[in-house]
Design brief:
By secondary structure, the protein is an alpha+beta fold. The chain has four domains: 1-93, Sandwich (Jelly Rolls); 95-294; 381-482, no CATH class; 485-701, no CATH class. It is 52% helix and 10% strand. Strands 1-8-3-6 form a four-stranded antiparallel β-sheet. A four-stranded antiparallel β-sheet has the order 2-7-4-5, with helices on one face. A four-stranded mixed β-sheet has the order 9-12-14-13. β10 and β11 form a beta hairpin. α2 (104-149) packs parallel to α7 (282-294). The chain is globular, with a radius of gyration of 30 Å.
Length: 838
């Protein structure tokens, strides 16, 4: 046990430094520990060799793994502080049952912590299972490719006592053929990514049956959690044996859940080692066969797929378990070392000098498009059928020339970009998914963002710059030949002088705020902040001082590379073929009607807030000298208009570097979707979901304390057992939910029904959902009073209004401490009180 935790004493406000071990493996866990601030992590041993894996993290205002108090054996986990902590620690030597009888309130808090611990570990297991299925799919497909490709005459040489590849591949082949599976050929890299589970009688699907948990006990515990508070208090005081029994049995299920987690980790790592690391790993066996029979070129093509999987798996594993080194690696013998060497140089250079990765990427793509070798020849010139040689091919774009000249773009890259644009312009179908378009578009994407960054930086120190530069920075227009005359006229005559109460930024304004360090950069697509990635890179790379670039320029590069380069894709329903450049063929409709303006955005948000009036209100802390209390305030989001054409609106992040900062919504500069209002509402539904998770923290999935997410997740888990719904209604709900992949998407669909139809008195939701939404996403008072006339809403609206009146009365007394001598509340508190009356 940690030297700072004394098992004999009550220790209040005990400071624990970051990295301290509170409990080690097999320590006796005999104290009830409340985490007042900070966070702790718990780690498990996964094998006899002592390998450890991080299983989860516990944050402020929770008991630390109280299920360990009910165990009969010593602590199987290591518990360490992941940041500076304050802990209240109480000896726990007495019988657990007698403790429950004497301390009903603490007993109830223990039960709540048990439920929260289970939900968080369960959520992590589900995430890891999704990853594990990807690993297992590659494992299965490698064996199928080896078996069906018939490349290795003698698989016995790659077998051992624990893994008979000869017999395993034979079994896979028989199942695959018996189910009429189609094998496109061993040289087809797409096969390795296909889902062939039905042909080998498998399922890559998660279910509770995969866990070693007693579903009946879980149902009892979660049902007990939903017991009304007054009834639960009475049970804890008068019938304490029942909650004690539930906590004790539920603690065993928590132990089983952790054991299941360890089991899937061990199994997944065994797959990863067999795929990549074992002396006769499956990747090597397949690639050796391809290399020997089909040659190096085919082998390299398949290797690129294998290597991409390796990189993805490695990245996930490091992030998920916070590892420095991996339990698996690429292990090829001498005859295939050339495969690794082909990637080694660029990989090592990008690790040693990460700031140069953009230039290397460009060089890679340029060589990919323009290189000629004996085996194959591919260049932009060769694609243009019937055209003259490249020496005679010139770009006549005035815009492109002005932009490159203004940005001082390197001549060699200007030439490549010019060729790529010429080729792209001559394609009849610019959005077709074929080899020519893929290679040309890849070059355009890479060079575009490099040119955009250089152009923007130059514009900061230039009072007046060419109109072409303005069109480029605002709309992504780089070549006037890609626009019809009508569209070009619209762009030339466009101006947005409208005013809005919202903070709506065009690209130049937004990137200027980032560059001038007025606003922190957006998070990356993996949810990491600029500061987090900087710290991570500082650990990984040895940076040379002379090569350091100014911090504001770093932030700008981060925003363009991690935010802009991702958002332009997610704003379209075809992210794989999305291009950041503007071209008229991508505009579906009249451009003058599709350009996004501040007024359009404000109108849609105003309409939505007139119905969902609490949308952007969130908890905050009001301080007045030494007095403080919780209240709610409206935090309107940042709206960022990104250059490009898209048919979606996207909520990029629900808050800033702390949970009280504004969200960030992204709009394309030209919106081609069918319904702007619905797209905005869907983005706001995503905001409601994610922001509630942020504000509620670990309790977000709790049915009573989790707000809208907790109530909705509970609805998804229990609607089948409801006596309020008919069998037909349950069937309809199930069919509807099956259309969506995630709980957030399911919620967003119901949110649309609530806002667009239920607010008008058109009943679209079932009674269970209506009861959740009316309290979590209430309508304005005038809307509620109209709906109160309907039988489906009458009791719900009456209950809501009565509860709101009670809340107002309670808050009048609560906030009296902030009143001045004239009995006036501070403006912020008064706004909240006025909000409650709406």
């Amino acid at each position: 046990m940690s030297s700072v935790i004394d098992p004999r004493k009550i220790q209040k406000d005990l400071p624990i430094p970051k990295g301290a071990v509170l409990y080690d493996f097999d320590d006796q866990y005999n104290k009830l520990n409340m985490l007042e601030s900070g966070s702790v992590q718990f780690i498990a041993k996964i094998n006899d060799s002592g390998n450890e894996r991080l299983l989860g993290e516990i944050k402020t205002k929770r008991f630390i793994l109280p299920h360990l108090l009910f165990g009969e054996n010593n602590n199987p986990l290591k518990i360490i502080s992941s940041m500076d902590c304050i802990i209240n620690s109480y000896p726990f030597y007495q019988n657990t049952l007698s403790f429950f009888s004497q301390n009903p309130l603490i007993a109830r808090s223990i039960f709540v912590s048990l439920i929260a611990d289970f939900n968080e570990i369960y959520s992590k297991i589900k995430s890891f299972y999704e990853f594990s299925f990807k690993v297992e799919k590659l494992y299965d497909n490698l064996i199928l490719a080896i078996a069906l490709g018939k490349l290795n005459k003698n698989l016995i040489v790659f077998s051992d006592d624990s893994f008979n590849l000869f017999q395993i591949s034979k079994n896979y082949e028989e199942k695959f053929k018996s189910q009429n599976g189609f094998f496109p050929g061993v040289d087809n890299p797409n096969f390795l990514g296909n889902d062939n589970s039905r042909f080998i009688q498998k399922k890559y699907e998660f279910s509770m049956e995969r866990l070693s948990c007693n579903q009946d006990i879980l149902n009892i515990a979660f049902s007990f959690r939903k017991t009304p508070l007054e009834v639960m208090d009475s049970i804890y005081k008068n019938t304490y044996e029942l909650p004690f029994y539930i906590c004790k049995t539920f603690s065993k299920e928590l132990d089983s859940l952790i054991a299941s987690f360890i089991e899937i980790i061990v199994r997944t790592e065994s797959y990863l080692i067999r795929i990549f690391s074992h002396p006769s790993n499956l990747s090597y066996v397949l690639l050796k066969g391809i290399n020997d029979k089909l040659g190096k070129e085919k082998c390299l093509a398949i290797f690129s797929t294998v290597y991409a999987s390796y990189q993805n798996f490695a990245e996930f594993y490091k992030n998920f378990f916070q590892l420095i080194s991996l339990p698996f690696n690429l292990n090829f013998k001498n005859d295939l070392l050339y495969l690794i060497e082909t990637t080694k140089k660029s990989t090592l250079e990008s690790v040693a000098q990460p700031e140069k990765k953009g230039k290397e990427a460009v060089s890679s793509i340029i060589s990919d498009i323009l290189s000629k070798n004996e085996n194959s020849s591919f260049s932009i010139d060769s694609i243009i059928i019937g055209e003259k040689k490249s020496s005679q091919l010139t770009t006549s774009s005035k815009f492109f020339s002005e932009i490159c000249s203004f940005a001082n773009f390197p001549a060699d890259e200007t030439k490549i970009f010019s060729k790529a644009l010429d080729t792209f312009i001559k394609q009849q179908d610019k959005t077709a998914d074929n080899e020519i378009n893929r290679k040309v578009q890849k070059a355009i994407r890479t060079l575009y963002f490099k040119l955009y960054e250089k152009t923007f930086i130059k514009s900061l120190n230039t009072k007046q710059y060419p109109k072409a530069v303005d069109y480029f920075l605002k709309f992504g227009i780089i070549d006037e030949r890609l626009l019809t005359q009508e569209d070009l006229n619209v762009i030339i005559n466009f101006s947005d002088n409208s005013y809005s109460d919202y903070e709506i930024y065009y690209p130049y304004d937004w990137f200027s705020l980032i560059y001038n360090e007025k606003i922190e950069p957006s998070i990356s697509d993996l949810g990491q902040s600029f500061a987090e990635i900087e710290r991570e890179e500082a650990k990984r790379y040895k940076k040379v001082k002379e090569e350091e670039i100014p911090i504001n320029l770093k932030k700008l590069k981060f925003e363009i590379e991690n935010f802009y380069q991702t958002t332009y894709r997610v704003l379209t329903s075809s992210p794989l073929t999305a291009l950041p450049i503007f071209f008229s063929e991508n505009v579906r409709g009249k451009l003058s009607d599709l350009i996004i303006t501040r007024e359009k955005i404000a109108n849609e948000l105003d309409w939505l807030r007139s119905i969902d009036y609490s949308l952007f209100w969130r908890e905050s802390i009001y301080r007045q000298e030494d007095i403080f209390d919780i209240y709610k305030k409206e935090v309107l989001p940042y709206i960022i208009i990104i250059p490009g054409i898209g048919d979606r609106i996207f909520m990029w992040q629900d808050s800033g570097t702390n949970k009280y900062m504004p969200a960030r919504f992204v709009f394309p500069s030209v919106f081609t979707g069918s319904d702007l209002r619905k797209s905005v509402a869907l983005a706001c539904a995503a905001y409601r979901w994610e922001n509630n998770k942020t504000m509620k923290g670990p309790a977000w999935a709790d049915a009573t304390a989790g707000g809208i997410t907790g109530a909705y997740v509970d609805y998804l888990q229990t609607y089948q057992k409801s006596t309020e719904l008919s069998i037909e209604a349950k069937k309809t709900i199930k069919e509807q939910l099956s259309k969506f992949r995630s709980d957030r998407e399911k919620f967003a669909n119901d949110y649309i029904q609530w806002i667009f139809y239920e607010s008008e008195g058109i009943l679209k939701l079932n009674s269970l959902l209506r009861r959740i939404f009316i309290f979590e996403i209430p309508f304005k008072k005038e809307v509620l009073l109209q709906l109160q006339r309907l039988p489906a809403f009458e009791k719900l609206v009456t209950t809501f209004i009565n509860r709101r009146k009670m809340e107002i009365r309670s808050n009048i007394n609560r906030y009296r401490k902030f009143e001045d001598q004239e009995k006036n509340l501070p403006d912020e508190i008064q706004k909240f009180m006025d909000f409650l009356k709406n």
